[in-house]
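Quick one, tokens below:
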């Protein structure tokens, strides 16, 4: 007799529920697993349509938690078909006696949190009420078929099939007139089978899809060999990879090679017949529309090669959405179907379906009779299965209500107001943008570890904190913002279900990064969670380390290169290294004109570079001081960012050089910076700028100089400045703030590098001078308006913020931008790190504002 009071109730007996059951048992937690179907398998139980296959190779789509399975189970193909995957699930369930822990043909109808008892109360379709301390939805991301949303669907008297609810018995279309509605993965996989039998097949396509041949066959030899040689290493690579499948990461932009070369590289990827390979051919397919278009062109050329009728080929060619922003498909002879004489393609954007009738389908003035209609119209993805159950958390709030404007989760695993409630591969987790097996195992293990930790520490409840949930929402949005997903109507964006909120449901930051964040949350003592039990109450607001995904990717790539530390180099070597790195960066946007020249510095001529906008002048002038710790860099070393600011703000940027340490120590750079400002102000008109509209700007050490000369201008009665833009500035060399400890390692500008800079630039005594540490000024009153940008993971963050605070307290108008997830250098990396774009856009609008009304 199954217990009606258990530690954990799990809903769903797919791969997630099965593994969780195993782990709960292994660790002595009592559980009930409730499954609506009459067998295990989840997705692979329900999706039995002909041709259903996994798009991830079997080398990668299998459990890793039971190593014996690698010997006991041999996959017959590279991409396993549904019956084989279902057999695998059954095999594992039998081997581990999982069937005995699962209640089949039981649906959860209602679940409510009882805050007094600190338990869930779960009502099932059999009339039973089960109470449990914890409640886990392992219901899968694509398990609730969406309503086809076409008028008259219930009128049709012929056979009706839904791909996601395919009958268990074989369906024979021989001699039948069949309509298939939809051209997503399910349609693409099933179509060749249906076409082979049907007398007549009409395919109703709303959006053409990208698909590539699966090239099915034996397991890929290279993957198989790597797995055999070192299974653990292969699996770790999968777990830390962006998608959950080990794959070499591209470093080449699709725009950096000729079209011919790009197509030849894509052809190699194509030949591999792996779902994720095409998109991974170049580094910028997911983030740059022009780069993505190269892939789109290639994919479309392939359709035209196969489909004989050019008009049909064109109708089947996706236009208007970026590759990868709708789920790309894998097929076996899909496009070939359209060369068959009894197959017709109807583009319902041109010929809309008006109604399903008793005998067929009416569309655009035509009426066609069918014996069978197949709805391959997709799913209410990610949230459908979760909110379909009436789940009520604290204070009577239902999850459906809470998620009305979009799912809010912390880590895609938990949600505020619903204690002890967990989702496996829920919204806000990599889920459908990853190899599901890898993501499922990670979530199951996280939940297991959380339960074990709670038990060890005597906590009864766990609930995410609202701040953590908000941080996660913002981070997910940050990640989504740099991709092309949001421009496409896809089920990833909830766009396939009328009324569903439009957000990117899965987390796009990558499987490896996500795992690191989740692990960090647990290892640092449940960061972002509130825990209670045994009279104890713990709140750990965190936050977890949430970097911009492109910044983190860059750091990972740099870590792999094992670059020598700057502080171990001589200044000459460091300069050579920086110059060499600069040759590899993206050039930045075109500007109207670039002019190089010299100006009289404090001890001789120095160079400048003018970036002039294309628009009609005279323009406001921004005197710009480059970064480089007063040791490195030049008037051209921040070239891409100067171009970017010039173009965005429509101002003239004059980047001036100054003498560098150790050859010319403090205050040489300040003296030159000051001379530069005076010279520009005195020659503004000749330079083509506006003499009464001058501001200063600088990055890092250059930000320090900009702040210092702004004070000098105030103290010397001019030049009059309209503003100061300080990007991650050095403001106080007399002490190290907390951000040095937090961010002193691993974020390019390290504590050691900063110390190396200071040691070359100024003595300990000199660092206390106002011209080295502008924060130490007696008064900051009457300075020009400031915009101060600090990076969250910058050792200089706190001193930048301290300067902003001090200015503000002194009555100076200050705008502060705290660049979330950024490091000291990332905001300047124009065209390389898309996440910096929005920060630079704000900087540019800050610059414009300096001059408004002037
Ligand atoms: P998908 O990928 O959501 O595909 C559904 C298809 O049905 C897609 O082509 C839709 O066009 C089309 N559709 C949906 N509603 C309609 C209506 N009302 N009229 C016409 N056409 C419609 O679901 P699948 O089952 O194929 O694949 C799901 C996932 O399973 C897949 O991505 C893999 O992860 C495995 P639309 O694109 O919305 O214009």
């Amino acid at each position: 007799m199954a217990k009606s009071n258990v530690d954990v109730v799990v809903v769903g007996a797919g791969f997630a529920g099965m593994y969780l059951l195993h782990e709960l048992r292994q660790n002595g937690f009592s559980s009930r697993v409730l499954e609506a179907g009459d067998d295990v398998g989840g997705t692979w139980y329900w999706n039995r349509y002909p041709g259903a296959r996994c798009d991830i190779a079997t080398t990668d789509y299998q459990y890793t938690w039971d190593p014996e399975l690698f010997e006991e189970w041999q996959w017959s193909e590279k991409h396993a078909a549904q019956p084989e995957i279902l057999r695998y699930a059954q095999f594992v369930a039998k081997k581990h006696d999982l069937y005995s822990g699962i209640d089949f043909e039981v649906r959860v109808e209602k679940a409510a949190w009882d805050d007094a008892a600190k338990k869930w109360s779960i009502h099932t379709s059999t009339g039973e009420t089960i109470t449990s301390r914890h409640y886990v939805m392992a219901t899968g991301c694509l398990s609730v078929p969406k309503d086809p949303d076409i008028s008259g669907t219930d009128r049709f008297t012929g056979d009706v099939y839904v791909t996601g609810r395919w009958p268990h018995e074989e369906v024979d279309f021989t001699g039948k007139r069949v309509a298939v509605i939809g051209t997503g993965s399910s349609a693409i996989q099933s179509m060749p089978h249906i076409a082979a039998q049907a007398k007549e097949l009409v395919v109703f396509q709303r959006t053409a899809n990208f698909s590539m041949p699966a090239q099915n066959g034996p397991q890929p030899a290279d993957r198989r060999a790597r797995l055999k040689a070192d299974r653990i290493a292969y699996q770790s690579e999968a777990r830390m990879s962006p998608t959950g499948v080990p794959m070499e990461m591209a470093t080449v932009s699709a725009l950096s090679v000729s079209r011919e070369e790009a197509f030849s590289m894509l052809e190699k990827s194509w030949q591999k017949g792996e779902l994720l390979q095409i998109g991974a051919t170049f580094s910028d397919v997911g983030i740059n529309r022009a780069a993505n278009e190269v892939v789109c062109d290639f994919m479309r050329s392939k359709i035209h090669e196969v489909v004989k009728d050019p008009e049909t080929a064109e109708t089947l060619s996706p236009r208007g959405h970026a590759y990868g922003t709708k789920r790309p498909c894998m097929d076996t002879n899909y496009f070939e179907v359209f060369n068959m004489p009894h197959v017709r393609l109807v583009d319902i954007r041109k010929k809309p379906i008006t109604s399903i009738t008793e005998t067929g389908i009416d569309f655009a003035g035509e009426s066609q009779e069918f014996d069978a209609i197949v709805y391959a119209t997709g799913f209410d993805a990610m949230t459908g299965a979760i909110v379909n159950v009436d789940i009520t958390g604290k204070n009577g709030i239902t999850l459906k209500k809470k998620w009305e404007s979009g799912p809010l989760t912390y880590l895609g695993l938990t949600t505020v107001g619903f204690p002890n409630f967990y989702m496996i591969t829920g919204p806000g987790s990599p889920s459908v943008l990853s190899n599901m097996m890898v993501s499922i195992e990670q979530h199951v293990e996280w939940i297991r570890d959380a339960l074990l930790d709670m038990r060890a520490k005597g906590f009864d409840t766990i609930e995410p904190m609202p701040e953590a949930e908000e941080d996660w929402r913002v981070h997910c949005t940050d990640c989504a913002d740099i991709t092309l997903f949001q421009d496409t109507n896809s089920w990833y964006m909830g766009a396939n279900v009328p009324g569903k909120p439009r957000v990117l449901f899965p987390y796009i930051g990558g499987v490896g990064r996500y795992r690191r964040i989740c692990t960090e949350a647990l290892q640092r003592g449940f960061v972002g969670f509130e825990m209670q039990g045994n009279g104890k109450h713990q709140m750990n607001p965190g936050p977890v380390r949430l970097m911009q995904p492109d910044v983190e990717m860059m750091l990972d790539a740099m870590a792999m290169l094992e670059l020598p530390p700057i502080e171990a180099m001589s200044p000459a070597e460091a300069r050579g290294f920086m110059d060499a790195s600069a040759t590899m960066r993206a050039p930045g946007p075109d500007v109207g004109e670039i002019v190089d020249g010299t100006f009289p510095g404090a001890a001789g001529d120095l160079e400048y570079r003018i970036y002039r906008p294309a628009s009609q002048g005279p323009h406001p002038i921004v005197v710009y001081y480059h970064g480089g710790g007063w040791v490195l860099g030049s008037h051209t070393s921040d070239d891409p960012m100067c171009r970017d600011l010039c173009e965005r703000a429509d101002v003239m940027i004059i980047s001036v050089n100054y003498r560098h340490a150790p050859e010319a120590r403090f205050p040489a750079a300040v003296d030159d910076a000051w001379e530069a400002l005076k010279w520009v102000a005195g020659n503004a008109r000749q330079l083509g700028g506006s003499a009464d509209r001058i501001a200063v700007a600088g990055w890092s050490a250059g930000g320090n100089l900009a702040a210092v000369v702004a004070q000098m201008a105030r103290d010397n009665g001019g030049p009059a400045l309209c503003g100061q833009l300080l990007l991650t500035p050095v403001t106080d060399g007399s002490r190290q703030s907390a951000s040095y400890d937090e961010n002193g390692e691993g974020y390019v500008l390290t504590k050691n590098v900063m110390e190396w800079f200071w040691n070359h630039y100024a003595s300990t005594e000199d660092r206390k001078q106002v011209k080295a540490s502008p924060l130490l000024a007696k008064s900051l009153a009457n300075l020009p308006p400031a915009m101060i940008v600090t990076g969250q993971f910058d050792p200089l963050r706190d001193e930048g913020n301290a300067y902003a605070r001090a200015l503000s307290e002194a009555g100076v108008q200050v705008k502060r931008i705290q660049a979330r997830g950024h490091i000291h250098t990332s905001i300047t990396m124009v065209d390389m790190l898309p996440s910096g774009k929005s920060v630079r856009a704000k900087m540019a609008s800050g610059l414009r504002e300096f001059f408004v009304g002037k």
